[in-house]
Structure formats: structure tokens, C-alpha cells
Amino acid sequence: LKNMAPGVPDTFQGTETWNLNFVDPDNRRSVPYEVLAKNLAELQNEYQNDAATLAGRLWQNATDGKLKQWVTWLTLNERIQFPELFLKGTYIPLNVSGKYKQHIIAFRRNFEDEHLIVILPLNTGSLPARQDWEDTRIELPEMNTVTLENRLTRQLFEVGQVLDVQDLFDVVPFGILRNV
Description:
Blueprint: H1 33-60, H2 66-81, H3 83-88, E1 90-93, E2 96-97, E3 104-111, E4 114-121, E5 137-139, E6 147-150, E7 156-158, E8 162-164, H4 165-168, E9 175-179
Antiparallel strand pairs: 1-3, 2-5, 3-4, 4-9, 5-8, 6-7, 6-9
Helix pairs in contact: 1-2
């Protein structure tokens, strides 16, 4: 969320994986650069070969921290590839409808013909691990594109006025969609 929302994301070196300290990170802790670099290279290679399988595996093993490192790389890479979108683009909250609408945050970033839609679950502590999102949908504004790619899984979605959350959350329970 912090890497896709307006503003400058604040990321401390050495916190690319989970940091379970009770205090803010500081410069006195050693950072395992070699391990982080090796993990990132492996994740990037897997992402190029089979993004959906990688996303599912990382989600199933989320406690090892590689999921956070991968999502951090992926989202910051979006900011590098599309700087105008994040510097000059608009931020538009999207309406959510359905039974679990209070458990979803969704917004769109756009600049000219570039569109990025971010959809994340909220308040998930009261929900089961494999939530059935039933009739929960994201209401999409008119766009010049009808095909969106989930940047996490590389799945393509043909969309109209709504996006079904259950379909989007099939592999991992969040999505970052870009027009293709």
C-alpha cells in the first residue's frame, strides 16, 4: 500500500524482509546484503518464468519474509518504470460493493493512458484464511482499456464496469493491475 499510494514510500535498508523489532530500524544493525541480493535475484528469475506460481508459493510461505521482499521490489519497480504516473498521476478511490465491501481498499492511479489499480483486503483478522468474497466487486471508472494485467501473477483480466474480487484474489489476496 505504501509504495502505491501518493507520496514518497519510506523504506529502511535491511527491512526488505520482516523486521519484528520493537523499535524503528537504525544504521547500527548489520544488513545481510549478500543474502538479500541472492534472494532477490532468485525471485526475479522465478517471476520471469512463472509469476502466478511464485506468488502462490510466497503467499503460502509468507513468514520467511521473501513475500515482503518480492512485493517491495515489484512495487518500487513500478514506480521506476512509470515515474510520471506516480509524480503527476491522479489518485482516485474506487467504490466497492457487496457483502465484504468494508474489508477492501481500492484505488486507481492514472496519468494519460497509464492506469494502475490497487486492491487490498482490510481488517482481515475477523475473516477466514481462505475467504470467499462472494458478491464483493470493485466498481471501475471508464478507461480506454478493457484488459488489465495483475502485476503480481501476470494474470490477464478482461474487465468492464466491475471487477470481481474473488477472481482477482484467486492466487494471492491482493492485486496490482496495470493496463496492457
